[in-house]
């Protein structure tokens, strides 16, 4: 159990990443930037594209297993890593992994994670999309101070899902996540295994995000700074390539950006099969040439490379907020390098979702940020987040419909509820009966002026949970509220 962590610590000591200077530097550069002074951004066009291999996250082995419970422990720490070829970047990590470790868990089998905090900031670790008790939800004020630890219990009483974990410490989460504090968490179940989807080496999570760097290769965090975050990372590398065999692959795509939304397409216009979303598999695969991912959302896709000749390269492109040719218009490159046998399949039926129960409660939720001031505040129902306040009280077991509106003229948002996987039943007055939003969701897109109706049944745990815009900078600006299930 200790070996891996000790090895990681030794690595840290060698690079000196936890030394005082290392910790101060990012803060100084942010401050300098805010004053409009000395720091120069790296020019994204000078970063070689498709020059580094995209790493495949390693599945983390539990420290021990007892009965049906697997125990993990992570040390949150700063380390140096190579994101841009030839540069070392200080990042905030779980056990040194950037992007994070990968927990694979089985539905019905408990996972217990001890997080010890060796970062210079407090942290609170939330399992996004997880159905967990309040005490393990990583709520914004349930902080692990530097030098302390906390143990989280994840019951995994839910079906297959593409979960992830990340910091949620209020006002700090946006910088902590920007600096790397995220991890993958795949929840599998037996019905899913029986489908015969691509698995093992052909089932790969990819965290896609943007970032901003200074010319020394250090991350440059400035709040609400979407426009300057123009370097695109896939699994922690700037514009990597990934060698594939000419067969089917399952990619679990995560948008781990603080604020950037992606509209992803393959450069040759080919379709992919979307098989899942935030809360696991869709009922049936969806053939599409476009994958939309707002911050925090997931798309589970199968790409079949068998039609391509060896030597073919295909780029994963982004058309959202990224004119053709701009740095953010490309994400990564697939290179078809060899043939391989393929016994996997994508069945035409993937799962049956539970029937929607009749809703007995309707609520409205209004999302808004100040559009006029760059350091504006964020509001839900015209209120800034206050952890002492309960904004909505929900009766345990009730099924509710929430009509969520983005009343901004120019600023997009999205909307995430803790504790539940919800169903999107209507978008702008049009019922959602098919497509990528017809599965189980925990985060949903809301462009300016849009309105969506989501429906959820609140069971499993009583307690206080937050809901918020998942553009972390907006949540940090106050765009978060509390519900209490009683
Ligand atoms: Cu992914 Cu409340 O968070
Ligand atoms: Cu927002």
Concise description?
9% of the residues lie in helices and 40% in strands.
User: At the third CATH level, what is the topology name of the largest domain?
Assistant: Immunoglobulin-like
CATH class of the largest domain: Mainly Beta
Name the hetero compounds present: CU-O-CU linkage, copper (II) ion
- Mind telling me the CATH superfamily name of the largest domain? Cupredoxins -  blue copper proteins
Q: Provide the helix percentage.
A: under 10%
Which sequence of strands runs across the widest sheet? 12-11-10-14-19-16-17
CATH architecture annotation name of the largest domain: Sandwich
Give the SSE map:
Elements (H helix, E strand, L loop, with lengths): L1 H14 L4 H15 L29 E3 L2 E13 L7 E6 L7 E5 L3 E8 L7 E4 L20 E6 L6 E7 L5 H6 L3 E7 L1 H4 L9 E9 L19 E4 L2 E2 L2 E6 L1 E8 L6 E5 L5 E6 L2 E9 L2 E3 L4 E7 L8 E6 L11 E10 L21 E9 L8 E3 L11 E3 L4 E8 L6 E5 L5 E5 L2 E2 L11 E4 L4 E7 L5 E6 L3 H5 L3 E6 L1
The chain binds CU-O-CU linkage (C2O) and copper (II) ion.
């Amino acid at each position: 159990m200790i070996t891996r962590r000790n090895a990681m610590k030794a690595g840290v000591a060698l690079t000196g990443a936890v030394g005082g200077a290392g910790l101060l530097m990012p803060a100084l550069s942010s401050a300098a930037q805010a004053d409009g002074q000395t720091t120069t951004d790296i020019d994204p066009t000078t970063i070689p594209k498709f020059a580094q291999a995209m790493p495949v996250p390693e599945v983390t082995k539990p420290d021990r297993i007892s009965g049906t419970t697997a125990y993990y422990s992570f040390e949150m720490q700063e380390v140096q890593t190579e994101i841009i070829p030839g540069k070392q970047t200080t990042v905030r990590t779980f056990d040194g992994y950037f992007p994070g470790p990968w927990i694979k868990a089985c539905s019905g089998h408990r996972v217990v994670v001890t997080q010890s905090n060796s970062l210079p900031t407090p942290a609170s670790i939330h399992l996004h999309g997880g159905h967990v008790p309040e005490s393990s939800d990583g709520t914004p004020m349930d902080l692990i101070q530097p030098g302390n630890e906390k143990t989280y219990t994840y019951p995994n009483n839910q079906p297959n899902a593409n979960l992830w974990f990340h910091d949620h410490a209020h006002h700090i989460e946006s910088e902590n996540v920007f600096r790397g504090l995220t991890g993958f968490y795949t929840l599998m179940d037996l019905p899913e295994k029986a489908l015969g989807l691509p698995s093992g080496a052909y089932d790969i999570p990819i965290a896609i995000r943007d970032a901003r760097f200074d010319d020394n290769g250090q991350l440059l965090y400035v709040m609400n700074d979407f426009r300057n975050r123009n370097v695109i990372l896939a699994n922690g590398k700037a514009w990597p390539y990934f060698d594939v065999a000419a067969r089917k692959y399952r990619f679990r795509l995560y948008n781990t950006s603080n604020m950037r939304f992606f509209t992803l397409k393959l450069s040759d216009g080919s379709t992919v099969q979307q098989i899942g979303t935030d809360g696991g598999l869709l009922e049936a695969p969806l053939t599409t040439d476009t994958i939309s991912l707002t911050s925090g959302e997931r798309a589970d896709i199968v790409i079949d490379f068998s039609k391509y000749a060896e030597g073919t390269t295909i780029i994963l492109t982004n058309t959202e907020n990224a004119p053709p040719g701009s740095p953010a218009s490309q994400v990564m490159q697939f290179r078809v390098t060899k043939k391989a046998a393929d016994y996997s399949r994508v069945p035409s039926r993937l799962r049956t979702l539970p029937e929607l129960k009749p809703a007995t409660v309707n609520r409205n939720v209004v999302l808004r940020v100040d559009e006029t001031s760059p350091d504006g505040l964020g509001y839900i129902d015209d209120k800034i987040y206050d952890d002492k306040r309960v904004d909505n009280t929900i009766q345990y077991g009730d099924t509710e419909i929430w009509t969520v509106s983005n009343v901004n003229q120019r600023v997009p948002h999205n909307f995430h509820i803790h504790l539940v996987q919800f169903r999107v039943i209507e978008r702008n007055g049009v019922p959602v009966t098919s497509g990528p939003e017809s599965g189980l969701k925990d985060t949903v897109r809301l462009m300016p002026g849009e309105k969506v109706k989501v429906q959820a049944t609140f069971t499993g745990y009583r307690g206080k949970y937050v809901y918020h815009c998942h553009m972390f900078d907006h949540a940090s600006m106050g765009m978060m509220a509390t519900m209490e299930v009683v």
